[in-house]
Structure formats: C-alpha cells, structure tokens
Amino acid sequence: MANLLHNSSFFLLLCLLHFVFVAKSQSFIGINYGQVADNLPAPEATAKLLQSTSIQKVRLYGSDPAIIKALANTGIGIMIGVANGDIPAMASDPNFAKGWLSSNVLPFYPASEIIVINVGNEVMSSNDQNLMTNLLPAMQNLQKALNDVSIGGKVKVSTVHSMAVMKQSDPPSSGSFDPNIGDLLKGLLEFNQATGSPFAINPYPFFAYQSDPRPDTLAFCLFQPNAGRVDAGTKIKYTNMFDAQVDAIRAALNAVGFKEVEIVIAETGWPYKGDSNEVGPSIENAKAYNGNLIAHLRSMVGTPLMPGKSVDTYLFAIYDEDLKPGPTSERSFGLFKPDLTMSYDIGLSKANNQVPTPKTPVSPSPNASPKAPVSLSPNPAPKAPVTPTLVPTPNTTVTPASPKTEKSVKAGVSDSQSQANINVGMLVLSQILWYTMLHMR
Fold first, then answer.
1. To which H or E segment does residue 307 belong?
2. Which residue, 38, 31, 15, is CA-closest to 76?
3. Can you spell out the DSSP letters for 353-377?
4. What is the pTM of this model?
5. pLDDT of 422 higher than 80
6. For bias kind Low complexity, which ranges apply (predicted)?
7. What angle do CA 244, 248, 254 make, to 5 degrees?
8. Do 385 and 126 form a contact (C-beta atoms < 8 A)?
9. Sign of the CA dihedral with 202 first, then 204, 205, and 209 last
10. Is 252 helix (H, G, I), strand (E, B) or coil?
11. What is the pLDDT of residue 427?
C-alpha cells in the first residue's frame, strides 16, 4: 500500500511540476513595436506597460537605442532589425556588419536581452533581385561578426518572410514554397538550420478572410465554433485558420528537408477599425481573434502537425501607427493607445482574471457578395513606401456578415489567474509531499 501511495504521489508530483512550469511560462507571447507614428509614448513608459502584461518578447523593425535601453533588465526578449536598405552594404563589406553590431547591439547587450536580429523584412517577396541575392551574404557577415565577439550562439540571425513565399497552402499538407525563389530560399534555410535560428513568417488570417469573406470563413479565422475544414491529404480537421497556415508552413519546410527548423510567427493581428469599404475590421473581431489566439497559445495544444507546444507568436501591434499610408485598417492594429490604455481587453494585463467575452463579430457593408474560396495564403498586398515597419495592405472587398458568426471568445488565462493556479498547485504539492513522507516512514 505504501509503495502504491508512493508511486501515485510521485506521478502527481510530476504532473504538478509540469503544470507549474507551463503556467509560469508565457514566453511564447510577443508583440510588434512599430514606430511609423508621431504620437507614441516614451520608451520608458512602454517598457513599464509591457512589464504589466504577460508579453515576454518584443519585435522592433529597426534598432532604436532609446527603446533597447528602456527594455534593459526587464527580462523581455528583444528582436531587432537591419533595414532593407542596409542589406547590400552588409553583404559586401564584413566591416559594415561589425560596425552595425558595435553600434546597435554591443552597447546594450546583455542588459538588454537581444535574442534575434532580423536582416530585412519580407525581402523574398519584394521582387528586388539585388536585395534578394544579397540577403544571405548579409546574414552570413552578421553571423561572423557575432561569432567574433563570442555571442553568435546567444543572439540569432534570421530574416522575416511574408506568406507570399508560399506557392501552395491549402490544404495545409500540400504546403510548398514558391519555386521561383527556391534556390535562394534553400540557402536561407540552410543558414537557419546551421545556426539554429528560426524561420520567421507573417501569417494573417485577417487577409485570408478578406480574400474569402464568407461567414463560415470569419468563424474559422476567429477561432470560433465552425464546421472545420478537412485536409484531404491527412484527413485532419482544422478548426481555425491560424493552425492551418502554420501547418502549411511546417509542411513546406518538411518537404524541402528542414524538419528541425523552428517556426516563429513574426507578425499576426487583426485591425479594430477600417474604412467603410473594408471587410472585417471591428473591435469585436479584433478582440475575438487576438483573445482567442492568446487562449490557444496558452493552452499549449499546438497545431495538428506540431502538437503539445506553442510557437513563439508576436502580435501586431502594441500601438497604432498613425503615419502609415493606405486604408484606415493599416493604422488600426494597436492593442494599446498612446495614453497606455487598452484599445480593447484581451486579457494581457497581469491584473486581469480572464479574457473578456466579445460582442457579436462585426462585418461591414451589407451590399456586396462573397468571393469564391481561395488559398489560405492570399497574395500579399503592396508594401508601403520605405519605412522600417512594412505590413501588407488589405484588400478592399466588401461583403455581408451573418448571424451565424455570433460566437463568444474562449476563456483565456491571464497571468494573475495563472499565479493563483500556481499558488493552489504549490499548496497541493506540499500536502502530497508531506503525506507521502508520513506514510513512507
């Protein structure tokens, strides 16, 4: 009996330790910090804001020293970026890479926890052959500069891709890369594999919905109850667009022999406001997408092809960027306002107990008819003029919504709730250990 009790208690101990580890770890939740705006709060205020949330990582599109300094000693991991315009010089001159590192990393590291340097943003879908061919040499020179100062294994070098690098993504098992960039992409993937750096990419279910604006597609994109979509190749039923897009990327990587290369979601989000002719933007839809995404990540369920873990995911974005060109939606992705209040609540604050339930998802204009279904990776929209914070510009298809899309956000787990669960777990754990020792005497 004592032996049985001992074994049972040991099993419970392992379960509780796993629970505590998962509950404490929120390192897979990051956020993008763009700066194409004239009304942003001071970096120090933003650093304090981030520390009040469960966000553990920040992606910068450049390497603003004020922001990097403000994030020092916060425990927040930082992605920084090399501008697309610096790629040719970094590729042709190793000393340029060394100088860039000396100016943008070494004065701040390790107090500021720089974890990844992204060389360029969406270069492989830019159609700029000069940038595309210089990307890998630039990454190699920067990696050598990091190695020379003995931090090459700690600070990773990568680049960020748009979903336009995908030729096929529907169904997910057929995921494949654009053969027109196959050789260049293979070199980048070999670099990722050799250095242990991630394959960073920007999937946006929002743009997929704009390309196929039916009510059932909206529910699929917002993680809401829906009939699901069965992958004919694997017979796996997908219940949300995010998992389908991520698994299409995984399948594409596997198909070209890079099964061990990690995927990082460098951007994903949903705008809370748009023009009258834009389909999809609304506070309710943005709250549903981002809130349910966070709940999905915290569940540690993973995707069908990568079960039991959550990919690092950087939400887009911390603030609106009021100087961006294009439709209103391009300037309306911010989770927080310049006065540091929330645009809408998705349970990121450590003071919250749960993810609030959104109202009915809102679709605009009742006068348009839906398009036919399209691939999970719609054609990317044109890039904005030269700025460090480029994201695709949405299409402007208009379509009606349906009452069928009225579903609530799944409950998420905030840090305060996680901490409460941890405290209960630790209390139960101590009682089990005491009871086990008592009966093993």
1. strand 306-307
2. 31
3. SSPPPP-------TT--PPPP--SS
4. 0.80
5. no
6. 386-403
7. 140
8. no
9. negative
10. helix
11. 43
Contact 132, 126 (CB under 8 A): yes
Q: Tens digits of per-residue pLDDT, 207-235?
A: 999 999 999 999 999 999 999 999 999 99
Within a domain: 251: yes
268 DSSP β-pair partners: 315
Rounded-to-integer distance, Cα 218 and Cα 370, Å? 12
pLDDT at residue 315, rounded to an integer = 99
Alpha carbons 15 and 9: distance in angstroms, whole number: 10
* Domain harbouring 332, CATH code: 3.20.20.80
Tell how strand 156-162 and strand 263-268 pair up. Answer: unpaired
pLDDT tens across 291-310, in order? Answer: 999 999 999 999 999 999 99
State the amino acid at position 88 in one-letter form: P
Using CA atoms, how far residue 246 sits from 196, 262, 306, 310, in Å, is 19, 11, 9, 11
The per-residue pLDDT for range 137-165, each reduced to its tens digit, is 999 999 999 999 999 999 999 999 999 99
Tokens of 436: 């086990």
Q: Is residue 16 part of a domain?
A: no
Report the chain's mean pLDDT, rounded to a whole number: 83
Is 177 contained in some domain?
yes
Give yes or no for residue 351 having a pLDDT over 90. Answer: no
For residues 98 and 359, is the Cβ–Cβ distance under 8 A? no
The more confidently predicted of residues 389 and 334 is 334
Work out the burial of residue 227: count CB atoms within 10 Å of its CB; fewer than 13 is exposed, 13-18 middle, 19 or more buried.
exposed
Residues labelled catalytic: 122, 267
Instruction: Say how many CA atoms lie within 13 Å of 191 toward its Cβ.
Output: 25
363 sits in the region (left: phi over 0; alpha: psi -120 to 50; else beta) called beta
Percentage of the chain surpassing pLDDT 70?
A: 74
**Phi, psi values for residue 313, rounded to 5°:** -135, 125
Domain assignment present for 20: no
- Per DSSP, which regions of 96-228 are E strands? 114-121, 156-162, 166-168, 176-177, 199-202
pLDDT tens, residue by residue, 51-69:
999 999 999 999 999 999 9
Helices (H), 300-396: none
Instruction: At 255, list the tokens.
Output: 């198909």
Full residue range of the structural domain in which residue 134 is found = 27-415
Split into its structural domains, the chain has a count of 1
